[in-house]
Amino acid sequence: MSLSRRQITAAALAAVPLTLAAAPAPKAGRTLYIAGDSTAAQKYADAAPETGWGMALPFFLHKDLTVANHAVNGRSSKSFVDEGRLAAILSVIRPGDLLLVQFAHNDEKATDPARYTEPWTTYQDHLRLYIDGARARGARPVLATSVERRRFDAAGNALPTHGDYPAAMRALAREEGVALLDIQALSLALWQRLGVEETKTYFNWTATEQDNTHFNPPGAIAVARLVAGELLRARVLAPRDVRRLDDEIPASWITWPEATA
Q1: In degrees rounded to 5, what are phi and psi of residue 45?
Q2: What does the pLDDT average to over 231-250?
Q3: DSSP string of 41-96, one letter each residue
Q4: Among 75, 95, 68, 83, which Cα is nearest to 16's?
C-alpha cells in the first residue's frame, strides 16, 4: 500500500535522532551530498580493498565542488530516512548544492521490514522525501539508478539484478522532473564489455572473498567515472565542473582512513 507524502514525511521527522552527526557544509563553493548504500560508501582501513564509488568521485570533479559522502553500508531508501540520515543532510544542505540519491540494493530485501520497499509504491514514496527535502532548501536533487552487481549467465551475458527498482526510479524522475543518472544501464553495459573474467578485477575479489556486489579501487573508479559522465550529460554539472573523464586514474589514489569512534 502506498503511503501519502505527508504520512511518510511525518514518520521520517519523528525518527530523527538528535545526536546524529553530519559533515558540515563548506563556507564557499558547492557541495554534492551522496545518500546511498555500501556500493557508494566511504570504506575504512579494516575493509580494504573494498571501495565505494563515492570515494573516487572527487577525482572527476573540480576542487570547487566538494563531495560529502553520507552513504552507509546496508541502508535502503527507507532505513536511511528512518535513522535520521536524510534529516542530517537536510540540516546542512544549502541553496545550489546537489543531493545525489542511489538506493535499491537493500530496498530489495523483502524479508526485512526495516529496509524493504516495494518498487512502485513505498520506494517511490521514500525517494520523494529526498526530492522534496532538497528542493525545499534550494538544492537540486539527482536520482541515480543502482549500479549493477556482477552476475552472468552460462553464455556470458551480464544479467540485471535489481528487478523493477530502476524502472520505478526512471518513471519517478520523469514524473518529478528530476535529473536521472542511469548507472544501472551503464554499469550493466560495462560489465558486458569486460566479460566474466575481467570483471573480477573490478569487484572485491580477494584470496578469501568473492564479492560480486562491492568494488575494489579499479571498480570504484570505473563507476565514479560513469557517475561524473552522467552528471555532465544530464547537465547537472557544466564542463568546467568535471575533469579527467578520459584520463587513467591510478588505483593508488584510493586510501582507506582509520575508522573513528
Answers
A1: -55, -35
A2: 98
A3: S---GGGTT-B-HHHHGGGGB-TTEEEEE---TT--HHHHHHTTHHHHHHTT--TT
A4: 83
Query: How far is it, in rounded angstroms, from Cα 179 to Cα 104?
Result: 17
User: pLDDT digit string (tens) for 64-112?
Assistant: 999 999 999 999 999 999 999 999 999 999 999 999 999 999 999 999 9
The pLDDT confidence band at residue 208, using thresholds 50, 70 and 90, is confident
**What's this model's pTM, rounded to 2 decimal places?**
0.89
Comparing CA positions, the residue from 187, 103, 99 lying closest to residue 151 is 187
Evaluate whether 38 touches 52 at the Cβ level (below 8 Å): yes
Torsion of CA 13, 19, 20, 24, to 10 degrees: 110
Q: What is the mean pLDDT of residues 114-140?
A: 98
Beta bridge partners of 181: 144
Contacts of 98 (CB under 8 A, 6+ apart): 30, 31, 32, 33, 139, 140, 141, 142, 236
CA atoms within 13 A on the CB side of 128: 21
Residue 210's alpha-carbon distances to 55, 70, 130, 135, 196, in angstroms, are: 21, 26, 33, 40, 13
**What is the 3-state composition of the chain as percent helix, strand, coil, each rounded to the nearest 5?**
40, 15, 45
Whether 166 shows a pLDDT value over 60: the answer reads yes
| Block residue for cell numbers 541502508 | 75
Query: According to the model, what pLDDT value does residue 230 have?
Result: 98
The CA radius of gyration of the chain, in Å to the nearest whole number, is 17
Give me the mean pLDDT over the 201-226 stretch.
96
Residue 14 pLDDT > 80: no
